[in-house]
Amino acid sequence: MHNTYKVILHVKESQQTQFPEPISISLKVKQHKLPALVQQCRKVLMSQGINVVGQFDSVSRKDWPTFSSVQLDQDTVKAFIGIKLFNDPIKLQYPVTLFMLPLPRQYFHQVWASSYISFMAALFILYSSHNIVAAIVVALFGVAVSAVRRKLICDKHYTQGISTPNEIVISENSLVIPRVYFEDKQVRQIEKSAIKSINIEWNWYKAGDGDSALRQYWRPFVFRVKIDVSHGESITLAGQTCDSNKFVIALSQLGHSATLTQVPKIAAVWRFYILIPMAIALLGMTGFGLYSLYIRYLV
Protein backbone atom coordinates (compact mmCIF):
# COMPACT_ATOMS: atom_id res chain seq x y z
CA MET A 1 0.00 0.00 0.00
CA HIS A 2 1.11 3.57 -0.65
CA ASN A 3 0.73 4.81 2.91
CA THR A 4 0.86 8.56 2.52
CA TYR A 5 0.41 11.36 5.00
CA LYS A 6 -0.83 14.88 4.43
CA VAL A 7 1.40 17.52 5.98
CA ILE A 8 -0.46 20.81 6.49
CA LEU A 9 1.34 24.06 7.26
CA HIS A 10 -0.94 26.78 8.68
CA VAL A 11 0.30 30.35 8.28
CA LYS A 12 -1.00 32.62 11.04
CA GLU A 13 -1.22 36.39 10.66
CA SER A 14 0.95 38.60 12.83
CA GLN A 15 0.92 42.27 13.75
CA GLN A 16 3.40 43.05 10.99
CA THR A 17 1.65 41.03 8.26
CA GLN A 18 -2.08 40.85 7.71
CA PHE A 19 -3.49 38.18 5.41
CA PRO A 20 -6.94 38.64 3.89
CA GLU A 21 -7.72 35.03 4.83
CA PRO A 22 -5.92 32.16 6.58
CA ILE A 23 -3.30 30.39 4.45
CA SER A 24 -2.47 26.68 4.55
CA ILE A 25 -0.20 24.60 2.38
CA SER A 26 -0.67 20.84 2.10
CA LEU A 27 1.70 18.19 0.78
CA LYS A 28 1.21 14.42 0.51
CA VAL A 29 4.28 12.39 1.47
CA LYS A 30 5.23 8.75 1.95
CA GLN A 31 5.24 7.48 5.53
CA HIS A 32 8.98 6.67 5.58
CA LYS A 33 9.78 10.18 4.29
CA LEU A 34 7.74 12.00 6.92
CA PRO A 35 10.37 12.51 9.69
CA ALA A 36 13.03 13.84 7.30
CA LEU A 37 10.50 16.02 5.49
CA VAL A 38 9.19 17.51 8.73
CA GLN A 39 12.73 18.34 9.82
CA GLN A 40 13.50 19.89 6.45
CA CYS A 41 10.29 21.98 6.61
CA ARG A 42 11.23 23.25 10.05
CA LYS A 43 14.78 24.15 8.97
CA VAL A 44 13.62 25.98 5.83
CA LEU A 45 10.95 27.96 7.69
CA MET A 46 13.32 28.95 10.48
CA SER A 47 15.99 29.97 7.96
CA GLN A 48 13.47 32.46 6.55
CA GLY A 49 12.85 33.97 9.97
CA ILE A 50 9.46 32.32 10.43
CA ASN A 51 8.60 31.30 13.98
CA VAL A 52 7.69 27.60 14.08
CA VAL A 53 5.43 26.93 17.05
CA GLY A 54 4.45 23.53 18.43
CA GLN A 55 4.84 20.13 16.83
CA PHE A 56 4.35 19.02 13.26
CA ASP A 57 1.69 16.30 13.18
CA SER A 58 0.54 14.09 10.31
CA VAL A 59 -3.12 13.89 9.35
CA SER A 60 -5.35 12.50 6.63
CA ARG A 61 -3.76 9.09 6.18
CA LYS A 62 -4.49 7.71 2.72
CA ASP A 63 -4.02 4.16 1.42
CA TRP A 64 -3.06 3.89 -2.24
CA PRO A 65 -3.05 0.23 -3.42
CA THR A 66 0.25 -0.90 -4.93
CA PHE A 67 0.30 -1.71 -8.67
CA SER A 68 -3.09 -0.14 -9.31
CA SER A 69 -4.52 2.59 -11.51
CA VAL A 70 -5.66 5.87 -9.98
CA GLN A 71 -6.95 9.07 -11.48
CA LEU A 72 -4.40 11.86 -11.76
CA ASP A 73 -5.57 14.68 -9.50
CA GLN A 74 -4.27 17.19 -6.98
CA ASP A 75 -3.79 14.43 -4.38
CA THR A 76 -2.18 11.68 -6.45
CA VAL A 77 0.14 14.04 -8.28
CA LYS A 78 1.71 14.90 -4.92
CA ALA A 79 3.42 11.50 -5.09
CA PHE A 80 5.46 12.98 -7.95
CA ILE A 81 6.31 16.26 -6.22
CA GLY A 82 9.18 16.66 -3.76
CA ILE A 83 9.22 19.60 -1.41
CA LYS A 84 11.78 21.35 -3.62
CA LEU A 85 9.37 21.23 -6.58
CA PHE A 86 6.27 22.24 -4.65
CA ASN A 87 6.45 25.94 -5.46
CA ASP A 88 8.09 25.65 -8.88
CA PRO A 89 6.25 27.24 -11.83
CA ILE A 90 4.55 24.90 -14.28
CA LYS A 91 6.89 23.86 -17.06
CA LEU A 92 5.30 24.13 -20.53
CA GLN A 93 8.16 23.04 -22.85
CA TYR A 94 9.96 19.69 -22.54
CA PRO A 95 13.06 19.22 -24.74
CA VAL A 96 13.44 15.66 -26.04
CA THR A 97 16.73 13.84 -25.40
CA LEU A 98 17.40 12.15 -28.74
CA PHE A 99 20.10 9.96 -27.17
CA MET A 100 17.41 8.14 -25.14
CA LEU A 101 15.16 7.35 -28.12
CA PRO A 102 15.32 3.73 -29.37
CA LEU A 103 17.36 3.04 -32.48
CA PRO A 104 16.47 0.49 -35.22
CA ARG A 105 18.24 -2.87 -35.01
CA GLN A 106 20.52 -2.17 -37.99
CA TYR A 107 22.44 0.37 -35.90
CA PHE A 108 23.14 -1.97 -32.97
CA HIS A 109 26.55 -3.26 -34.09
CA GLN A 110 27.56 0.15 -35.45
CA VAL A 111 27.08 1.59 -31.97
CA TRP A 112 28.87 -1.16 -30.07
CA ALA A 113 31.68 -1.94 -32.56
CA SER A 114 34.20 0.19 -30.66
CA SER A 115 33.30 -1.60 -27.42
CA TYR A 116 33.91 -5.00 -29.03
CA ILE A 117 37.33 -3.88 -30.25
CA SER A 118 38.30 -2.23 -26.96
CA PHE A 119 37.38 -5.31 -24.90
CA MET A 120 39.44 -7.55 -27.17
CA ALA A 121 42.33 -5.09 -26.94
CA ALA A 122 41.95 -5.01 -23.15
CA LEU A 123 42.16 -8.80 -22.97
CA PHE A 124 45.26 -8.79 -25.19
CA ILE A 125 46.94 -6.16 -22.98
CA LEU A 126 46.07 -8.19 -19.90
CA TYR A 127 47.44 -11.36 -21.44
CA SER A 128 50.67 -9.85 -22.79
CA SER A 129 51.65 -7.34 -20.09
CA HIS A 130 49.41 -8.16 -17.12
CA ASN A 131 48.68 -4.44 -16.82
CA ILE A 132 45.19 -4.35 -15.27
CA VAL A 133 44.96 -0.55 -15.14
CA ALA A 134 45.78 -0.16 -18.83
CA ALA A 135 43.26 -2.85 -19.75
CA ILE A 136 40.51 -1.14 -17.76
CA VAL A 137 41.28 2.24 -19.35
CA VAL A 138 41.13 0.76 -22.86
CA ALA A 139 37.82 -0.98 -22.10
CA LEU A 140 36.24 2.18 -20.68
CA PHE A 141 37.48 4.22 -23.62
CA GLY A 142 35.65 1.88 -25.99
CA VAL A 143 32.42 2.25 -24.02
CA ALA A 144 32.77 6.05 -24.12
CA VAL A 145 33.29 5.97 -27.89
CA SER A 146 30.15 3.82 -28.22
CA ALA A 147 28.15 6.40 -26.25
CA VAL A 148 29.38 9.23 -28.51
CA ARG A 149 28.69 7.09 -31.56
CA ARG A 150 25.13 6.44 -30.40
CA LYS A 151 24.49 10.14 -29.89
CA LEU A 152 25.71 10.99 -33.39
CA ILE A 153 23.60 8.24 -34.96
CA CYS A 154 20.52 9.29 -32.98
CA ASP A 155 20.93 12.92 -34.02
CA LYS A 156 21.28 11.97 -37.69
CA HIS A 157 18.48 9.37 -37.69
CA TYR A 158 15.84 11.45 -35.92
CA THR A 159 16.57 14.93 -37.27
CA GLN A 160 17.60 13.91 -40.82
CA GLY A 161 19.49 17.16 -41.13
CA ILE A 162 16.39 19.27 -40.44
CA SER A 163 16.85 21.79 -37.66
CA THR A 164 13.47 21.98 -35.86
CA PRO A 165 12.59 22.31 -32.16
CA ASN A 166 12.45 18.85 -30.61
CA GLU A 167 10.28 19.56 -27.60
CA ILE A 168 6.89 18.61 -26.22
CA VAL A 169 4.68 21.64 -25.62
CA ILE A 170 1.73 21.50 -23.26
CA SER A 171 -1.01 24.05 -22.67
CA GLU A 172 -4.50 24.08 -21.18
CA ASN A 173 -6.05 23.35 -24.58
CA SER A 174 -3.58 21.16 -26.48
CA LEU A 175 -0.45 19.04 -26.67
CA VAL A 176 2.23 19.45 -29.33
CA ILE A 177 4.31 16.30 -29.93
CA PRO A 178 7.53 16.73 -32.00
CA ARG A 179 8.27 14.86 -35.21
CA VAL A 180 10.95 12.60 -33.70
CA TYR A 181 8.26 10.35 -32.16
CA PHE A 182 6.64 9.49 -35.50
CA GLU A 183 7.71 7.49 -38.52
CA ASP A 184 6.29 10.05 -40.96
CA LYS A 185 8.35 12.77 -39.20
CA GLN A 186 5.34 15.08 -38.87
CA VAL A 187 4.55 17.21 -35.81
CA ARG A 188 1.26 16.41 -34.08
CA GLN A 189 -0.85 19.09 -32.42
CA ILE A 190 -3.56 17.38 -30.40
CA GLU A 191 -6.46 19.40 -29.08
CA LYS A 192 -7.60 18.60 -25.56
CA SER A 193 -11.09 17.71 -26.83
CA ALA A 194 -9.59 15.07 -29.17
CA ILE A 195 -7.76 13.18 -26.41
CA LYS A 196 -9.66 10.06 -25.33
CA SER A 197 -7.29 9.00 -22.55
CA ILE A 198 -3.79 9.47 -21.18
CA ASN A 199 -2.22 6.58 -19.27
CA ILE A 200 1.03 7.06 -17.35
CA GLU A 201 2.96 3.87 -16.49
CA TRP A 202 5.41 4.26 -13.61
CA ASN A 203 7.13 2.60 -10.65
CA TRP A 204 9.36 3.62 -7.74
CA TYR A 205 13.06 4.18 -8.32
CA LYS A 206 15.75 4.50 -5.64
CA ALA A 207 17.84 7.59 -6.18
CA GLY A 208 20.37 9.67 -4.27
CA ASP A 209 20.09 13.20 -2.98
CA GLY A 210 22.70 15.83 -2.28
CA ASP A 211 21.22 16.51 1.16
CA SER A 212 22.89 14.26 3.74
CA ALA A 213 19.60 13.95 5.64
CA LEU A 214 17.97 12.47 2.57
CA ARG A 215 20.88 10.55 1.11
CA GLN A 216 18.65 7.83 -0.34
CA TYR A 217 15.01 8.21 -1.26
CA TRP A 218 12.40 6.73 -3.57
CA ARG A 219 11.20 8.77 -6.51
CA PRO A 220 8.73 7.88 -9.26
CA PHE A 221 10.10 6.77 -12.62
CA VAL A 222 7.81 7.15 -15.64
CA PHE A 223 8.20 4.35 -18.19
CA ARG A 224 5.87 5.72 -20.79
CA VAL A 225 2.97 8.07 -21.40
CA LYS A 226 0.36 6.60 -23.74
CA ILE A 227 -2.04 9.04 -25.40
CA ASP A 228 -5.12 7.71 -27.21
CA VAL A 229 -6.70 10.14 -29.65
CA SER A 230 -10.32 10.13 -30.82
CA HIS A 231 -9.51 9.36 -34.49
CA GLY A 232 -7.83 6.08 -33.50
CA GLU A 233 -4.17 7.09 -33.26
CA SER A 234 -2.19 5.99 -30.22
CA ILE A 235 0.96 7.92 -29.28
CA THR A 236 3.55 6.54 -26.88
CA LEU A 237 6.15 8.80 -25.27
CA ALA A 238 9.06 7.05 -23.55
CA GLY A 239 9.49 8.53 -20.09
CA GLN A 240 13.29 8.73 -20.23
CA THR A 241 13.24 10.96 -23.32
CA CYS A 242 12.10 14.09 -21.45
CA ASP A 243 11.51 15.45 -17.94
CA SER A 244 8.52 13.15 -17.55
CA ASN A 245 7.90 13.72 -13.83
CA LYS A 246 7.36 17.44 -14.35
CA PHE A 247 5.30 16.62 -17.44
CA VAL A 248 2.94 14.59 -15.23
CA ILE A 249 2.69 17.53 -12.85
CA ALA A 250 1.85 19.85 -15.75
CA LEU A 251 -0.88 17.49 -16.98
CA SER A 252 -2.53 17.70 -13.58
CA GLN A 253 -2.09 21.44 -13.09
CA LEU A 254 -3.42 22.27 -16.57
CA GLY A 255 -6.52 20.11 -16.19
CA HIS A 256 -5.73 17.20 -18.54
CA SER A 257 -7.51 13.99 -17.56
CA ALA A 258 -5.02 11.13 -17.05
CA THR A 259 -4.52 7.86 -15.19
CA LEU A 260 -1.51 6.81 -13.11
CA THR A 261 -0.80 3.09 -13.47
CA GLN A 262 1.96 1.54 -11.35
CA VAL A 263 3.58 -1.40 -13.16
CA PRO A 264 5.96 -4.09 -11.77
CA LYS A 265 8.95 -3.10 -13.89
CA ILE A 266 12.53 -2.26 -12.96
CA ALA A 267 13.18 1.44 -13.44
CA ALA A 268 16.19 2.74 -15.40
CA VAL A 269 17.05 -0.75 -16.64
CA TRP A 270 19.71 0.74 -18.94
CA ARG A 271 21.95 0.96 -15.85
CA PHE A 272 22.26 -2.82 -15.80
CA TYR A 273 23.18 -2.99 -19.51
CA ILE A 274 26.18 -0.82 -18.68
CA LEU A 275 27.11 -1.87 -15.15
CA ILE A 276 26.74 -5.66 -15.48
CA PRO A 277 29.06 -6.05 -18.53
CA MET A 278 31.56 -3.69 -16.88
CA ALA A 279 31.42 -5.67 -13.63
CA ILE A 280 31.88 -8.96 -15.48
CA ALA A 281 34.80 -7.54 -17.46
CA LEU A 282 36.47 -6.14 -14.35
CA LEU A 283 36.03 -9.41 -12.47
CA GLY A 284 37.38 -11.36 -15.45
CA MET A 285 40.39 -9.07 -15.78
CA THR A 286 41.10 -9.20 -12.06
CA GLY A 287 40.78 -12.98 -11.96
CA PHE A 288 43.00 -13.38 -14.99
CA GLY A 289 45.58 -11.03 -13.48
CA LEU A 290 45.66 -12.92 -10.19
CA TYR A 291 45.91 -16.23 -12.05
CA SER A 292 48.83 -14.88 -14.10
CA LEU A 293 50.63 -13.75 -10.95
CA TYR A 294 50.06 -17.16 -9.41
CA ILE A 295 51.52 -18.92 -12.46
CA ARG A 296 54.50 -16.56 -12.67
CA TYR A 297 55.60 -16.42 -9.02
CA LEU A 298 54.14 -19.39 -7.16
CA VAL A 299 54.36 -22.25 -9.62
Describe the structure.
- The chain has 299 residues and is an alpha+beta fold.
- Helix content is 34%, strand content 26%.
- The protein is built from five helices and twelve strands.
- The chain has helices at residues 34-47, 108-129, 132-159, 244-253, 270-298, and strands at residues 2-11, 23-30, 59-64, 69-71, 93-95, 167-170, 174-177, 188-191, 195-208, 216-229, 234-238, 259-262.
- A five-stranded mixed sheet has the order 4-12-9-10-11, covered by helices on one side. Strands 5-6-7-8 form a four-stranded antiparallel sheet, covered by helices on one side.
- A hairpin with a 4-residue loop joins strand 10 (216-229) and strand 11.
- Helix 2 runs antiparallel to helix 3, helix 2 packs parallel to helix 5 and helix 3 (132-159) runs antiparallel to helix 5 (270-298).
- The radius of gyration is 25 Å and the shape is globular.
- It starts with a strand and ends with a helix.
Compile the SSE list and pairings.
Blueprint: E1 2-11, E2 23-30, H1 34-47, E3 59-64, E4 69-71, E5 93-95, H2 108-129, H3 132-159, E6 167-170, E7 174-177, E8 188-191, E9 195-208, E10 216-229, E11 234-238, H4 244-253, E12 259-262, H5 270-298
Parallel strand pairs: 9-12
Antiparallel strand pairs: 1-2, 1-3, 4-12, 5-6, 6-7, 7-8, 9-10, 10-11
Helix pairs in contact: 2-3, 2-5, 3-5
